[in-house]
Amino acid sequence: MGMTITEKIIAAHSRYETVRPGDIVDIIIDARAARDFGGANVVKNLNDYGLRVDDPDKTLFTFDCNPTGSDQKYAVNQHLCRQYARNNGIKVYDINAGIGTHLLMEEGYVWPGSTAISTDSHANILGAVGAFGQGMGDMDIAAAWNSGRVWFKVPGSVRLSLEGTLPDSVTAKDVILNLLGIYGANTLLGYSIELYGDAVDRMSLDERITIASMATEMGAIIILFPPSPEILEYCRERARSPFEPVYADSDAVYQLSDIIDVSTFVPMVSRPGEPHDTVGVKDMSVTRIDSAFIGSCTNGRIEDMRVTAEILRGKKVAPGVVLKIVPATDAVWKQCLDEGLMTVFKDAGALVSNAGCAGCAAGQVGQNGKGEVTVSTGNRNFPGKQGQGSVFLASPAVVASSALAGYITTPDAVPATPIETHYATGQPAAAAAARQSEASDKPVVIKGRVWLIERDNIDTDMIFHNRYLAITDIREMGQYAFDNLEGYKDFAKKAQAGDIIVAGKNFGSGSSRQQAVDCFVSLGIQAVIARSFGAIYERNAINAAFPVLTCESFETVDLKDQDVISVNLLTGEIINERNGMKTLINPFYDAQYEIYKRGGLLGKT
Description:
Layout: H1 5-12, E1 24-28, E2 31-35, H2 39-48, E3 59-62, H3 72-88, E4 91-93, H4 100-106, E5 115-118, E6 132-135, H5 138-147, E7 149-153, E8 157-163, H6 172-183, E9 192-196, H7 198-201, H8 205-212, E10 222-224, H9 229-236, E11 256-261, E12 268-270, E13 278-280, E14 291-294, H10 296-299, H11 302-312, E15 322-325, H12 330-338, H13 341-348, E16 351-352, E17 373-376, E18 390-393, H14 396-405, H15 429-438, E19 445-453, H16 460-463, H17 491-494, E20 500-503, H18 515-523, E21 527-530, H19 535-543, E22 548-550, E23 564-568, E24 573-576, E25 582-584, H20 590-597
Parallel strand pairs: 2-3, 2-5, 3-4, 5-6, 8-9, 8-11, 9-10, 14-15, 14-17, 15-16, 17-18, 19-20, 20-21, 21-22
Antiparallel strand pairs: 1-7, 12-13, 19-23, 23-24, 24-25
Helix pairs in contact: 2-5, 6-8, 11-13, 11-14
């Protein structure tokens, strides 16, 4: 009884001559990668258990989730990984390099018949070149870095034959979306899929990558392509070791074998929430979009970029639509530059970013906001995956055409004049009335428990760190108040509505962020009294009707932390309720009081 491609690769990397589905074996891993997502945990595991790296030449970091270095937590993790790499002779493909799984192919770390693992759940994309790639957790990766091996359960195999000729309008992305429509997300759960047939034999590397990258969305372990002569040539030019390709035996046993006529396939989209919820583009009602994204490990290759440029050439993105384009690797980015595609993208009005995962990760362009409708070439549209809005999945051709039209459509149906969305402006009367009612009955005398923070120069990053600046709902801000101020990181948990903060000089220095005021409002803090304030912070607080007052000293009232004080905002009189001692501070000035009474600068007079 013969073996499938997966079985032969696993057997060749184990101590067994043959393996069968269900066997659990230790296999040698040829390429062992960790990303900026998960990489720091891999390092932590190695350090915590005192483990060393088995073979640095087969071990690498790829920073593709946050290639802009824009998130401080990612930046810390990336730097930790860089330091570990320097100390252990490990190669780092840094934030300028691109998507790690693509780099494994470009840089010759994998080849037909090889094995690879990564902290990327789409490491099975390596099936595009006939390699067995798997995404794994940080403990598995740490174990492989240390020993060069991991255990694996041999999957059953499925053989799908794609026969016939694809219609001209159908791309590789449409092929995998059609297959998702047939098999859904769990029919082939846990299987290794091998693709055969005339349609497969004609596919380029880029097309194979697109299809292989969505094996995870089908629930499959991997989609494997038997390597064609073109793939063998590509890999032999790059491979770091000599190899012989692996093909299934003629008597290999498959749990399922299907023949599929691809001539019936049509351009498809996946509706928001589930990649397998597919529908033909022509069968959709008019669906307006706010943004469009082309890139990701699924469709960031040069062929995708060329298709996009051909559709955009000489045209403009529809008014009100934002188009974002991100090549998969730096090599693809440079090729776009050399071929003049970047000029086409920019002339059309697109935003182009450096290579990386982009929309599928939170560290680059491609995320959307609440209520935003996006059409994307990514491989996932789970709620929250690409932002808080709705995400349709489609091919680069459909996404580029939709960006021009202002709604989801195909290249042959782009209108001469795009749809232009007109948005209503102004605040609903009910909301304005609610704000006005909140401003009524502002107290002149306030009483509350004191947080005595005897420090000068407490800046806005200490009050409300810039990693939270995307938060716009004041109700969510309070939990982050002072979480970057040493000694007060638990302030938000311990603070009570009605508390009053007393601090030193230059409170609120730094940036102009309104959240540094609003986080206290969110918690119900009544006021901040300080020796002095940063100029912008003071303005922001006054404009928000949040009481801020200055006082040189509280010595005359023997103020201690957690004392209860009453403050007359108009006279400046303060009474320490613990001992009855009184003092005067600088009261509200007239303009401040007027703004306070009407609930803020924008309140009605």
